[in-house]
Write a structure and sequence with these properties.
single chain, Glutaredoxin, Glutathione S-transferase Yfyf (Class Pi), Chain A, domain 2, 2 domains
Length: about 300
């Protein structure tokens, strides 16, 4: 079973990063819409408790975090390339900036300006997830001008890159760096009321934004969550057992571990048995009554793996 199933919801910014990646690859995929906040009863049996969005499913293999998702999409579908001009490695380093400081700036502005219009449970959930247990809405609001100035300067870096006669960040062909930058412009435009005025300063960035939007999301078809669970139940994990003799943590297939995102987001640990480990990823086997045995994949960067 090689059909791509994406568990996401339309306003999710990180899902937009993956959706535009599917568009760059011109892929068909199945779309399962999930709730914005927990509980997520049709997702938890697949992930073992991982609650962030999006999650990709291929049969009984479950891919968590956009890093892991986009790597697997590229491994299975090499053409068109995510690395035009031979830009290997560099996009992942860029992604640590876009998914870190740049994303945090936009989230802070979105929550500070829209909290009064959003449900209290959403504000509490996102505040805890992105800013820790000591989340301070008043502090975010006091810092709005400062954060907007920080965002303006950093969007200016992207504009400078695109102002050099390039259609896309690496040249004339869209690639992974474009997905990493575009989802943040999309997020700001969609969710922060002042984004239009800030972005108007950057004509090259806005022109690129239009080119990226025109790429689209490939060919999605809606799927019922219960059907996705059945796909997992009827399949078996396809990930082979593999160790890594250079692994600094000494992780090996068969070893019980926990996996959790770094930071103070209140994320639950996911427990399982190592199936596959390498420099970039770890995959663990787990079993749930609703789906049978599944293999859940995580990136190494940005996650803590500990022996259970």
């Amino acid at each position: 079973m090689s059909e791509i199933i994406l568990h996401h919801y339309p306003p999710s910014p990180v899902s937009e990063k993956v959706r535009i990646g599917l568009g760059i690859k011109k892929l068909a995929w199945r779309s399962v819409e999930i709730p914005r906040i927990p509980p997520k009863p049709d997702l938890m049996p697949l992930t073992g408790g991982y609650r962030r969005t999006p999650v990709m499913q291929i049969g009984a293999d479950i891919y968590c975090d956009s890093q892991c998702i986009l790597r697997e999409i590229d491994r299975r579908h090499r053409d068109p390339t995510f690395y035009p001009g031979g830009g290997y490695g560099m996009p992942w380093a860029l992604g640590r900036w876009t998914d870190g400081e740049l994303f945090a700036l936009i989230v802070s502005l979105v929550i500070a300006t829209s909290a009064d219009e959003m449900p209290d449970d959403w504000v509490a959930d996102r505040g805890r997830l992105y800013f820790g247990k000591n989340f301070d809405l008043a502090g975010l609001r006091a810092d709005m001008d400062h954060n907007a100035a920080q965002l303006r300067a950093q969007f200016g870096w992207l504009d400078q890159r695109l102002a050099q006669g390039r259609n896309f960040i690496l040249g004339d062909i869209p690639g992974l760096p474009d997905a990493f930058g575009y989802y943040l412009v999309w997020f700001a435009r969609e969710r922060w009321a002042s984004a239009g005025g800030l972005l108007a300063e950057f004509p090259s960035l806005e022109a690129w934004e239009g080119r990226m939007a025109a790429i689209g999301h490939g060919s999605p078809v809606d799927m019922d969550p219960s059907d996705a669970l059945k796909v997992a139940k009827d399949a078996a994990p396809a990930t082979p057992a593999q160790g890594d003799p250079r692994d600094p943590q000494g992780l090996e297939p068969g070893m019980p571990v926990t996996v959790c995102p770094l930071g103070d987001g209140g994320d639950p640990q996911v427990t399982g048995v190592v199936r596959h480990v390498d420099r970039e990823t770890i995959a663990i086997l787990r079993e749930e009554e609703a789906v049978g045995e599944v293999c859940v994949h995580f990136p190494r960067v940005g996650y803590r793996v500990a022996r259970a």
